[in-house]
Structure formats: C-alpha cells, structure tokens
Amino acid sequence: MDPADAHSDQVRRFLLHVGVPVLGVMLVVAVIGGIGLHSYRSIRSGALALTHDLLVSQQNYIAQEVGEYLSPASAGTVIARDMLEHGAQAAIQKIFNSYGGSMLRHVPQIHSFYLADADGHFNLIERDPAGHGLETTYLTGEGAGSQFAHQFFDAKSQPLRTESNPAAGYDPRTRPWYTGAAQSGKLYWSAPYLIAQTGQMIITASISYQGADGRNAVFAVNLSMNELTSFLDSLQIGKSGHALIVDQDGHLLAGRHMADVAKQAGGDPAKMTIDPTTYPVLAQAFDVYRVQGYGPHTIRNRKRDFISIAAPLPATAQKWVLLLVAPESDFANFALVDGRQNLMFSLLIVALAALLGALLFRQGRRSERLSQDLERQRAVSGHESQALQAVASYPGLFDPTDDALVLTRGLADQSSARRASVWRIMHDGATLLCVDSYDSHHDAHTGGFELSRTELSAFFDAVAHGDAFSVADAAQDSRTANFFRLFMRSFGSRGLFLAPVLGATGPVGVITLEDAPRAALVSHFTTMIAGMVAARFSAQHYSAVAAAAPELTGEPPDEEARHAFGDGFLVPPGSVAASAGGPSGGATQPVSDGLFPAVAVMVITFSDLVTSPHADPAQVIALVETLATQLQAVAHQCGLYSIKMLGHRLVCVAGCSHTPDPGAVERMANAALAMREASLSILAKADLDPVFRMGIDVGPVFGGMLGRDPAVFNLWGDAIGMAEMMAQGAPEIGTIQVTQDVYQVLRQRFLFRERGRFFVPQAGMTRTYVLAGRR
Predict the structure, then answer these.
(1) Which domain holds residue 764?
(2) Residue 613: which pLDDT band, with cuts at 50, 70 and 90?
(3) Exposure of 160 in the CB half-sphere (CA atoms within 13 A)
(4) Which of 126, 497, 726, 757, by CA, is between 20 and 30 Å from 319?
C-alpha cells in the first residue's frame, strides 16, 4: 500500500468526522451569539432612551415641587412687604402676627417669620414646639439687659402663658438675613444653617422695606430644609436612585443622608459637602456636572454604570443645582433579564447543537474505529497466516532433536513481546525447565533456566489450573510475584501473559510473553503454538543416552565387568579405547603415568538418608545394587573411562589421555543427564525423595599405577576436588552444578542456568552454572 495515500485518507476521515461537527457547532454558536448581542444592544439602547425620558420627567416634577416648596417664601415675602409698607404703624405688629400665624397654620414647610427694624426691634412668630399653637417672641431692652419675651397661644389663638429669658445681647441687625436683604434691596436667600435647639436645618428668605414712619425694616421667612429633604427622600427614582440639591460650590442643601452629612460637619453649613469616600457616586456625579455642565451624563463606578442628570432650579437666588443619580440597571433591568433569557435560550440551543454534534462525532468515530478494527483484524489475520505458514514450513518442527527456535520468535513477533519463553514441566512435576527464551530487543535465544515449586508454589498452581491469564504488573500479583523476582526483574519487564501447554493428562508446560501489548489479540495464535509445543514434548521423551547414541557403540557391560565395579574401570587399567570415544570393540593402547590435560570428572554425592542405620539393610543393599547397576550401564553407554563408588560418593572420569579428548566433556554431560533421570526414577519407585547432588569439572589431572600385587591406577588433581565442591554446593537436590570451564565447552549444545559468582579456594572468584538439559 501507499503510506501517503493512507495518511491523506486518515486526515480526510478525521476532518469529516471531527471538523464538520465542530465547525457546525461553532457556526451555530456564532450566529446565536451575534443575534443575542444585537438584541441586547437594541434593548439596552431603547432602555437608556426611555430612562433618559423618565429622568427628565422626574427632574421636571422635582423642579416644580421645589418651586412650589419655595414659593411661600419668594411670593409670600413680597405680599407681606406690601402689607407692612402700607399698614399703619400701630397696626404693624398685628399685621405681622396675623399674616405669620395664618401662614404657619397652612404652609407646613414654613418654620417661622422674622421682623426687625433699623432701631433693633425684633419680632418672631413660630409654631409652639410643645403643642399645636403659636409662639410669639419680642426683644425688649437693649444691650446686656435685653430679654426675649415669649407668649404662647393655643390653636384658637387664645393666650396660654408668657415666659422670658435673657437675649444675651442679641442684635438682629448683625444677622446675615438682615444685612443681606438691607444691602441687596431685593429678595435675599441665606445659606442653610442649623438651629441647635431644634435640630432644624433652616434657609431664610428676607426682603427689606421702608415703613410709613420712614424707618427701614426687614421681613424674613424661614423655611425648614428638613421638609424638603423628606420630600426628596420620598421620591422613588428607580430602585436605589438619589435626588439631592446642592449649590454650585458643592454644599449639600437637601437630599438623602442629610442628617449624616450635617452630623459629620458638626452643624456647620460650610462643611456640609458630599464626602467622596462615603458617597463616591454622588461626588463623581457632581464632579461631572462641574466639568460638563447641565444635562444627562453616564458615569461608571466599581464596574457599574450610573445615569445622572444635573438641572438648575431657577426659583432660587443662589443658583441651586438638582442632581439625580440612579444605577442604569434600575431602569434597564428588564433588558438584562430579557438578555439573560435570550442567553438561556441561546445556551439551550447551543447545548442541543453540541449534543447533536457530539452524537454525530461519536457515530463517526465509532464507524471509524470499527473500520480500523476490521482493518486491524484483517492485518492481524494476514500476519498470523504468514507466521503460521512460516512455522508450519519449518522442516524440523516436530523433530525432538531440533530446537525449533522459530516458535518463540513467531510468538514474540505476533504479540510484540519483549521476551517469549517456552517452559516444560519436568517428570517430577516440581520443576519448570526453560526450553527456549527469545529476547526480541537483542534478537537472542537463551534457555536452560530451572524454576522449582518450592520457590514458586503459587505460580505452579496457576499453571496447573490450565487457564491462560494476563497481569499488567507481575510484581503485584500473588500468582506471579516470585516468578517476576526470579526471572523477570533482571530483564526489566513488568507485564506477563501465560498460556498453558496442554498434554493428554493436563498441563505439560507453559508459554510466557513479557510486556506483550498485543497478547490478547493473538491469543488464538498462541493457543496454536502451544498445541505444536505439546506435540513436540510428547515426541521428545528426552533421554541423554539416546542423544549420545550417534557417538557411542558397544554393548552393556558383561557380568565380569559388573563384578569389577569396585575397581571402577570400564577398560583395562592402564589403557584407553583406541578411538577415545568409548568401548568400540577395538584394540586398546597402553597408558603411561603422567599428566592428562583435559579430564572430565563428575562427582555424585548421596545423603545419609539412603544408608540410614534405621533402614532395613536388605532393602538398602538392594536399592544400592539397583542404582549401581543402572549407573554403571549409563557410564558404559556414554563411553566413560572410569566409574567408582567411594562411600557416599560416586566418581566418574572421561577423557583420560595424554592428548585432549574433545568429546569427553560432552560424554560426561550426557552421562550426568542420564544418571540424574535414572536416579530420580529409581528413588521415586522406592518412595524416596531425591537425595543426591552432582558436580562436573574439566581440567588437568595426574595419573599412574601405584603399589604392587595388585598395582592400582589412581588419579589426583584440582579437577577432582572442584567437581566434588560443585556437587556439595549444588543449589538443590537432584541438580547438576558445573564450573565455568564446562559451561564454555558445552554452552552451544546444552541448556544452562547461571548461579552467580563464588569464591573458590586456590581458584579465586569464579562463576558456576546449573546444567538443565540438551538443546
């Protein structure tokens, strides 16, 4: 196939299955968002226009109300001035009291009236603070002895009582309302001031006139700003808006929080301004008015928009300014609610569109995955077919003597495993032998590893169960933890897949795949390979004697040779078979004393269990006789030079010649495997556990005929001592431990398991190996 075409097709499918739904959802979102934004802006623009109209109407209404609130002072002072100017001098007091009492009874915002002349006379009329009547006050006397005379009347103008108190040198001619009116000659408005006794904020409108007697006088009307503040507080400007009256210098005249402002200013009108820290929005609205003048304005404070209108109040002489401030949301809230509803509907539509897009995407991806799975399955099936064809076409597939390395290589290739291994359950059922292990990273085959049930009881139980299983981390699974520790940890793998090799009577082996991501996909391929391995196992019936048959000829020892077992020579002492390959029936050659450079020596040590004094001597002798006869037959068949029993030890020698015998070590290895199988079989029939260990070494030894009548041929040297140490130090009973020299000679034809490095006296550090079987 063309990789470029496959890539372009994959990109095209991805764009079709992913790009189209995503693009469709994005277009729907963009359209809905645009419509929502346009709708929100249109509604907000209309809401702001309506808000402006509402605030203008509110402004006109407040201006009208303030004008009406101040009209008693602006119009009433003119009427009162005309009455006082044209009234008789004797009637001035009566006119003042009548006019003032009538106005106080009918106009609530009027607080009191003043009348003063150029001679310092002063009259005051106000409401009785303790009742519903009136109170008149006259200033009598002059200087420090002046007194205020108070007379109280009920609601029907009937006198109630009189009081007097010191005036403390009060002179009306020094008051701002008097001097302002006298100097201006027209209606004069004073700045607001606080009356400490009543807590009333007062503003005074005064006007001067000339009486019939020619003296100048001033008439004043006091208006309560508290009433104006209450009126402004009662107005509903949006939900949380404010209306306040200030002068052009920023002094607060009336409005919300008036009492708090007056308290903070200590009653001083000059300090009654809007505090920016306490009322930042109001202070900002006034600053915008001072910069931009009268009219509507939009201000922003703390991420909120406010609408303010500054308008003049022409009825006042001091150029008062009316400020209206309200949050934009109070008037445009319905636009926000409508916008939220539109947004909710938009989000609902977007969610439905996204859901449909997701379903379309999911369906497309599922279709693509199914297509990919089908393609993958077809590819796997094709690959498996090729692999099976390669395995089936292997000529030595069912040849017991052939290693058939193609099996582990095929398993590793199909499952992408780091290592594929084939294990065989030995005849004792307590040992697993690694027939072949293939490392795919290094393209190398190894084998000969032995695992014992004593170390891996849970693993053996899992194998004996006969079911395949897989674990992601072999170190964490109780069934495979010890297998990981002994076999996998040094290799660095973690995952493990096991497939049993089933024979006629149950599991006869197991296949292990390490770090195999595709093991589950090729499980049927693994099962077929397991069937081939089972067929190979059933055909092998491995025998070391049969494996060495091409090298060996001759017949089992005769009766005379069997009785000469004590001497241990299978050929006449002092001679060696002419072929150096074993008894072949040919002539023998004399062997002289001296150094033999490459002698293979094997020592088998038996424990005291066999010859225990508590056992029946007749049975022990019969067992030893059977064992000795069988081992002697194996030695003869394998072409050994000598086999001799020395107490609990059996010593075997091969290659005893002055020139190195290249086949001696291999004959000794074949004899060791055969003797182990024979010993295990004989001891098992006697219902005894394996009670022997075996060791092999190869090296130079000395030999010669010693003594007379009879002369005895004897061998001694390091190889004999090393073989005995290998037997004594074997890791487990029934195992064959060999030296590094033996391993170097036989590693291409036999399976070994490395034990490690050990210190050997007179030899230093050396490696030892366990002989597992023949390749």
Answers:
(1) 551-774
(2) low
(3) 17
(4) 126
